[in-house]
Specification:
The protein has about 250 residues and is mainly α. The chain contains 11 helices and no strands. It has one domain. The longest helix has 26 residues.
Length: about 250
């Protein structure tokens, strides 16, 4: 165990990882999203894709204990269930892509997905049509592929919810509940493949401490009356993370 702990503390860029996960916790606490969009681009600079996905998934599961009770009461559980069902089927495809693609390619995919998501939201794109059951399944399926491949579990669903007309409270609750379900699905798949190492689990536990604390801070700051301010603050943080994580710099 001491050797494993030493390996965790010797993780390249650990200070930056702790800082990134702390900021991500605040963002997720008051918006219900943004952890992966903030953390994954930065983590990709220092960690292998498999480690990024494992850490992101395990850390997300730990954080769920902070945010899930309120979200469970406020979310549309039937809608979230359809999204999760579709993701359950496609996560294995995403994990397979993670294994066969080069690390730099995955970092470009991360940058592209995050930038497209952010650009659409900042531009004020709105979906005013009727969301059918097949559309919900397609959104969940896409989230499963991208989440398994990159650790970006939220962008597809974030774009779907935040681009719509739903109230901030509903968006926040549905997103938290779906991301919790997707984290569990990815973790189970990783365990069944024997792809989760002890060092990854201990690194996730180390990062979960500041993430747990800052998620509580973010949740305390959440006020539906200031949803516009929260969104723009989150957009700014995400943009900085995406730019810093571009493979151009390393």
């Amino acid at each position: 165990m001491p050797d494993l702990l030493w390996q965790v503390w010797a993780t390249p860029g650990l200070i930056w990882l702790l800082l990134a996960i702390g900021v991500a916790g605040i963002v997720r606490g008051f918006t219900g999203f943004g952890t992966a969009l903030v953390f994954v681009p930065v983590a990709g600079i220092f960690l292998a894709p498999q480690t990024v996905v494992g850490v992101m998934t395990l850390t997300g599961i730990v954080s769920t204990f902070v945010l899930l009770p309120r979200a469970w009461r406020q979310a549309d559980r039937r809608e979230v269930g359809l999204l999760a069902l579709a993701a359950l089927v496609t996560v294995p495809l995403g994990l397979w892509l993670m294994q066969v693609l080069e690390a730099e390619t995955i970092r470009w995919v991360v940058a592209a997905v995050a930038a497209i998501t952010l650009g659409a939201l900042v531009a004020g794109w709105r979906f005013s049509g009727i969301v059918s059951r097949p559309m919900l399944l397609a959104i969940g399926a896409m989230a499963g592929v991208i989440g398994g491949m990159t650790g970006l579990t939220g962008p597809v669903v974030i774009l779907f919810y935040l681009a719509g007309q739903s109230a901030a409270q509903s968006v926040r609750a549905n997103t938290i509940l779906f991301l919790a379900a997707l984290d569990v699905v990815i973790a189970v798949n990783l365990l069944s493949r024997g792809s989760l190492e002890w060092t990854t689990a201990l690194l996730a536990l180390t990062l979960a401490v500041p993430y747990f604390i800052t998620s509580l801070i973010g949740q305390a700051l959440f006020d539906p009356r200031h949803q516009r301010l929260y969104r723009w603050a989150a957009y700014s943080v995400i943009a900085l993370a995406v730019l810093s994580g571009l493979p151009l710099w390393t």
